[in-house]
Amino acid sequence: MGSDVKYLVAVVAILLVVQVKGQQNTVNEHNEWRYLTCRAEEDIVLDGKLTEVSWQNAEILTDFWMSFPVDDKKADSALKTKVKITYNEQFIFIGAECYGDDNYIIQTLKRDNKEQNEDVFGVVIDPVNERTNGFTFIVNPLGVQKEMLITGQTGRREILEAGRTPQGVNLAWDNKWFSEVSNYPDKWVVEIAIPFKSLRYDESKPAWGVNFFRVDAKSNSIHTWSKVPIEFNELDLGYTGELIWDNPPKKTKGNISVIPYVLGGVYRDFEAGEPNDFDFQGGVDSKIALTSGLNFDLTVNPDFSQVEVDEQVTNLTLFDIRLPEKRLFFLENSDIFEDFGIPPMRPFFSRRIGLDEDGNSIPILFGARLSGNVNKDLRIGLMNMQTREKNDFQAQNYTAAAFHKQVLSRSVIKGYVHNRQATNSDTSNYNRNIGLEFLYRSVDGRFQGFLGYSKSFNPGVKSKNYFFNSGIGYDNRSVSVYSNFAGVGDNYVADMGYFRGQEYYDAVRDTSIRIGMTHWYTRGSYTFYPGSSKKIISHTPGFRIIRDLKSDLSTISVETELSYSIRFTNTSNLTAAYSMNHVNLLYPYSFTDEVPLPAENYKYQFGEITWFSDMRRRLSFNAGASYGGFYNGTRYRYLLGMKYRAQPWGNFSFMFEQNTLDFPAPYGKVELLLITPRIDVNFSKELFWTTFIQYDTQGDNFNINSRLQWRFQPMSDIYLVYTDNYSVDKRIPKNRALVLKVNYWLNL
């Protein structure tokens, strides 16, 4: 293990030296992409018209660059985009004229939708101009809004599946802002007003980082004002221009938002044989801007019944699946707390608070969080949450503190302290963690390297309680390589974190065993662009190697995958992969109801192919199939997904996945089905109905979740949510709930 760490340190050092020598010509230096904004001369009426004198006198930004599918030329003049900016004491105003015919592609009228491949205009704002975190505001030609947090580097541009967002982007973040759109035969015009209250900025900064982008879905092209290389997402903060203030905005006063809620509901647990349980409760969230960059959040008796239900997946690994956080309180500035470790090993994972391992709710009494920018180089986060006692789950207090200190240009030194403490008389029931990391990122975002070390503290534990992580990566137009190496000791515990592979289930003894392990992940790919082809954008052959070892360096598992992807100009893509696996099963484990597989070595291979059709069409689909070995048996997998879009008011989708696992006697055979129809109907931009059905034989659950949402004022909603769960095997109900909830966003 020591030689591996030395190797990674050496490689990181080499990358640092190389980058220091070559970084002066690698990023937008703000000398070409600058905009001087002036204060509005009169009140701006938000109507999507841009008729005020202030708009007529504002400087015009145009000459957008192509960012995708090529990045070496200006955008087509027929798709010209013009942008203007002004402001007053309350808002920053952005006006844009997006030229082109009015045959728009609109995926939905639903706010904050996850859909890709639709016409939009967006702005990226980095108020502290340090390229580490920022905000994105997006509007489509029918005025549907979407806002996101950007946390550092958004990563290499990938083939995006429907509903998937880039890394480093938090789509679940919500805030109040305003926009209006007007449509014409040759263009659509959008007028945006973003309250300074919604942003966290440094009032001493004379310039902010900013970029503008336009997606034209018909041509499958993305245009940006400040030039962004094709390998990076248009949201990347490393390629912003500068928004220069004639008079920088001052700290906003009275920046306090209060969001109270009330709800009434009825719940019945059929499995426990209990009668209907009626629930009436209320609570409140509040957001207080202590400074223009530092925010204080408070929640009392929070309720998350309106949060969209988790999407079930067929899990054929030995470990629990990490499901995303969707609860609003935990989302703003979430990267301050969570951006540590590597994806399968996270010291902090907010879903551990207020939810048990099965995703069931543990009532939260109250919570408080302080987060944001102290100054241009320092971000901090401090969170405290108190839960109630529920059944055998004791009342707990969770405290997390973290800091991110920017050094060099885009590099960060960051650290954290976590404490989970039972609040009963047992003072020995606690878990504490402390850690420190250094992340190096070049100015242009192509190079990265990181090192980190952490210790956990539990009663009576004094050794093997460490966690370390390290990694390197490089991206350019064609080459993408990345490797990380991490490990945990036998006695390292992170009750507020997620560590995939640290706990193994023994099916014979019906118990879980914690082990120490090291994890090595390496991937690489080469993308080439056949410019002469009118149908294909790129070919990408690639590989990845994942190796897990025990503390004594004996093998747990090795996975080697070779892949080839083709991305087409019509947004479709095709991927084929071949995987070779070696698994040393540490403890007996069963994927069927028969005899568990014995703890021994298994070697097997399988191949798979996946196809995504043109997602811009009214009817689109994706399909996949895989076949090959699985431990000492065989696995067949079939996947079919279909979606019909009734533009713009409805989306009707259906996904079918079947996995057949066939083992030799006496280990059994099983067919796992996952069927998920979904209906989204948008009666208007304020009234939505979503019904999501999940039939999951692996989890023995048939779930119906139906939600009616009326946004009667900006960020203020009425929800009517119906949830029903049945046992697939027994064909009997498990539990059922009906909830009516009202929340109101009030700015003071």
Automatic annotation (TrEMBL):
Q: Which Pfam families match?
A: DUF5916
Domain named DUF5916: residues? 257-357
Question: Which Gene3D superfamilies does UniProt cross-reference here?
Answer: 2.60.40.1190
Q: InterPro entries recorded for this chain?
A: DUF5916
Name it.
Answer: DUF5916 domain-containing protein
Q: Which organism is it from?
A: Maribellus comscasis
Give the source lineage, highest ranks first: Bacteria, Pseudomonadati, Bacteroidota, Bacteroidia, Marinilabiliales
